[in-house]
Amino acid sequence: MxxxxxxxxxxxxxxxxxxxxxxxxxxxxxxxxxxxxAADLYRPKGAPADASGKYAALAVCGPFGAVKEQSSGLxxxxxxxxxxxxxAFDPSFTGESGGEPRYMNSPDINVEDFQAAVDYLxxxxxxxxxxxxxxxxxxxxxxxxxxxxxDPRVKATVCSTMYDMSRVAANGYFxxxxxxxxxxxxxxxMAAQRTADYKSGTYVTSGGVVDPLPEDAPFFVKDYYDYYxxxxxxxxxxxxxxxxxxxxxxxxxxxxxxFRYAAEIENAVMIVHGDKxxxxxxxxxxxxxxxxxxxxxxxxxxxVHTDLYDQMDVIPWDxxxxxxQKNLA
Length: 329
What we know:
Blueprint: E1 22-30, E2 36-44, E3 55-61, H1 71-81, E4 85-89, H2 107-122, E5 127-137, H3 139-150, E6 156-160, H4 165-171, H5 180-200, H6 219-228, H7 250-254, E7 268-274, H8 280-288, E8 295-300, H9 307-310, H10 317-327
Parallel strand pairs: 3-4, 3-5, 5-6, 6-7, 7-8
Antiparallel strand pairs: 1-2, 2-4
């Protein structure tokens, strides 16, 4: 097992201000597929409060098409202020992480990204391997839940404003295209794109968040624009802020369904969603699959999908902290 040499930016280039309450450093770790991932590590200043001298740790990723300098880094830094050792990582093929070709996605590889983060944290001398949790945001909320299905080392999982990317890819938004004819048309378009890409020797990208913004765009598209295309959240390495995923990315997502074994998750799960989010139905339906009295659904009145990306007064920090304290004890 070897780590690829990555060119990591050392200066602070996040879309949120640096906290003076934590120490920050860049780290790398590898997946079982041989891809090296880049992460920002946040550690509370001072020794762990726990008598063991080791930290409870959290791995954070998301949203789908974002980078660690955006929402996931904000979550990681804020939870580090509350006493956890945290990492926010770039998924395979994106951001500062390795993997070629760029801007590809696979549900299996991305679950592995989370598991590799758990591998890394479990082997740190300053982390208690029995007290590791994960946070997934947006599409990575779905990947976090899928990771909880397979990896019992994850003692607690928070899915914030989650997307079920496999459902959207196969059925369209609000399941409007949940029929064989619509899926058949997508398969044909994907197949034609694969042929064209192979012939040209390059992968066409699908474009990030639409720009310029049409006047008749749905409200959630306007919300995405406000985050990814303005000073609020724009980052030069973010897929959503720029050219987006490869056009064939959705083919693997629509060929699987996540959460097949969600009812068998024994460890704790919290799903957090704004009740005005267009994606609310995905969090609600995923939660309905879960079993056990250690599962919680937190509905945030009046919040839309992107409010939970970075709105400090909307994200339920205290609630998440209490959940992790209880379940990473």
